[in-house]
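pasting for ref
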Amino acid sequence: MNNPDKFAEYLQVAKDQGLDIMAPSINYSDKHFSVVGDKIVYGLAGIKNVGEGVVELFVAEREKNGPYKDFLDFLTRIDSRSSNSKLLESLIKAGAFDTMGVNRPTLLAHVADAVTYVQKRREERAFGQISLFDEEIEAQMDTFTMTEVEDWALNEKLETEKALLGFYISGHPMDAYKKAISERVTVNTARVETLPFGRVTNIIAMVTNIRPYTTKKGDVMAFLQLTDLNSTFDATLFPKSFEQYKEILHVDGIYGFTGNFDNSRGEGKISYLIEAIYANPEDLSPMAVTKCHIELEKSFCKPEQMTTLRDSFLTWEGGCKVELIIREGENPEKDVIACGGEFKVRYCDEFIEEVKNNRSVLNIWFD
């Protein structure tokens, strides 16, 4: 929860492997990450304005007396001193009550009235007033209705999640560009060791920060922070390019970029040197790929796996040369094997998916 870069990387790995990550849930979440069925559930303590101590109270009550039936039941069962309006609003906006059938804006519109209603019922019970009525009348008095408010659009939900969790959980604004990314982007920015440094590379990413900088000559350039579906990384826009594109750039905008990755700063730090920006990412030209890199674990390179891999090459014949990278456990040493021309392959999602399913394969990428 406290390492944004690593969490973004793990989040994407989980999605790539078909694992669902649920937003925080008052009925399924623990304090930190947990597993429910076949899903990973975000912890309640990861929500801004929600402390670990109060989460422990919520979880303890749930474990003792069963899941919360609805929002009103939750308010009734918890200590009123631990349910201030800021905490409740944060839980609602982060999606903690989404599984109860009432949308977030409806709950937000009625949260103050619900708190007042529950407090009034507590006072009535404390003074013994409820005992004056039979069960049917009491049930009628317990009714609290909410007038439904139109749900938020997905982007609005995602933005509130980002503000409260630091991440997009139930989706990503860039999900709409997955097809364009698959056709135009060939790099995984979370795997620095695979980046083609010094070569022109396409990127489709969201701008999350813009920091203008005045050079000694008086020219203005900018340092950007970009986030794609894999990671967050720094980018540099030199004066001439900044002057050309500054009018279309804004925080939270999603763009297509051409440029090259630079690692001259050392210490594993990279920067993307921007050459051109496209307001519509789909205006990027598809990258021409010429080589396929396949990373293998030596201990898994059994005859069966190698035969299956060879058959995949022959099935998906194309124009990309294949390079095999053989690794053994944590040993940094590697063997690199260039396959013959008869094993050239095609760059397509079907081939990549088939190769990933081979037990001996650790990773595959094209450039």
